[in-house]
């Protein structure tokens, strides 16, 4: 036997790694199930009760002891709903291309969960394919329809549709490879709304449904071959686990894998055999007919199906048929309506967001694998003394989840008095939480490899852990230059200044270069920059762009935070409203209007007060506006602006501070001197009066901020804590 070459061994290793990644994603999906959470709850209860955690703190007084609140694994993979009772038929039309057909049907059998029925339409295939289909249908219980001579795809598809009586019918090309959970997720998309009549998946090669690229360098449809060593299942798992499905509406869906609900067939009939009998354009015609009949089309953006592109037709033959079909389609439906749909498919922000995120999936997965190689099994405790949902806490929790995906056991520790408020603010937190009083923290933290303070006061709480032999690494996640929060000369301000140098060997890391420089200049302490980040599973484009009848503006008006300049903000918005009237629509958020400090902010101009708003509510607001205005005196990073840009808006941010780390003036945002109301008003006025500038900034914003994913920040934080691992 010939010994394998180094290159062959390398390829085999890459394939094995890809299969392991796909398997890990499937395991993560299982671990998200209610059954697994219940199993973990009882297991941990059984294991931990005999330890009598409360006994460890009897000498510390009556304060409540730490309590492990939740131990469910933190997986960001989105579980699909339970399979609906609807019946499903999968129709595969075949004309030769034996190897592709065999691979397609193998994948259907392997990845489709019963009950479903498989219908095969053999459209005049040669002997090899014909005999294979007969054998396959006999062994799998599939219905086989055979045409002795080829009738063309449109007629063959209609034969299958006539033979089906199921609630949902999936037309699947024979040159495809389906992946895990494809059918369940596709049906879930079709049943996500009462008017959804057609649904289709993402693919490497399916016109507007292609990721990451739609067109190649020559202007033809992109084929997006998977990188060497990446399997279709691995890519499908990454897409499904990216951010959860948005099921965006589509003007057109590619026919390579097309689910049609029974109501659509009953309403508009079958494919147009007379107009599109040659086999191209029939799905575009069907989509237009369905939309005219009141049905909606949806993209199952958590499904990935490989498309090899037709082996039954040559490239030149396919181009000719496509051109002829385009002419027929324009005569039947009118070119303007077609052009409008094409424009939406080409540049719709939800689709563009999906494409941009998919472009980064593999590199982030490799980064997580590298992190797992270096730090799997490490235990990290974040001391997070917060009551309410806020920017700093959101960053810590989001990056902690990424650390979990790198194999790190991450826990959060909060104060017992904060527990009811914290749990109300984060009701669905998927990280384990401990509760302990400050003097209990050293004992609670002694089993961890690293303990990280997240607020200046918490540095003092973890300080007793220093000098305990080779034990724990102490860190401080610096979210701002916190002495600026307090009056000059105050005791709390002095505590904040001292926190950066209180512990010898304390590992400090922060989000932006500005924050690093400020801490160094003021205290001499050195921080490492991990980079800006935000929760891309939540803050992303999920709906159509806001209408352009008025420029929609959101701004924070928080009276409890003077450095956010709430009075100046309201003054600027009032001046803008007086200048432009109903050309602008203004929403403010950030505090309860019933708060005793709010009355000075009230104004008589037309605006909406969203009050206190949670994460999903803020994401919804940012999806409905064109501009987020932040007129703070400075921002250490500027999370709200980053989140708004992630949703498709542009932002106005202060030039002082760290926001310029992601906001580039006149490229994706406006960066202004916020020390005077006049400059702030001028910036808003520019965006109202210059729609092309506004359009350009919005288009660039969400594409640019995709790079600020929490995975690289989490990796750099772990590298700061464990540089030698």
Given the structure, what is the number of helices? 25
Average of per-residue pLDDT values: 88
From the N-terminal CA to the C-terminal CA, the straight-line distance is 40 Å
How many structural units, i.e. domains? Answer: 4
Overall CATH architecture of the largest domain: Alpha-Beta Complex
Order of the strands making up the biggest sheet: 3-2-1-4-7-6-8-5
> Which bin fits the share of residues in helices?
40-55%
CATH homologous superfamily of the largest domain, by name? Spore Coat Polysaccharide Biosynthesis Protein SpsA, Chain A
Radius of gyration: 29 Å
Class inferred from helices and paired strands = alpha/beta
Q: Catalogue the unreliable spans.
A: 26-78
What is the fold named in CATH at topology level of the largest domain? Answer: Spore Coat Polysaccharide Biosynthesis Protein SpsA, Chain A
- Name of the CATH class of the largest domain: Alpha Beta
Largest sheet: 8 strands, mixed
Total beta strands: 21
Oligomerization status of the protein chains:
single chain
What gross morphology would you assign?
Answer: globular
Strand content: 15-25%
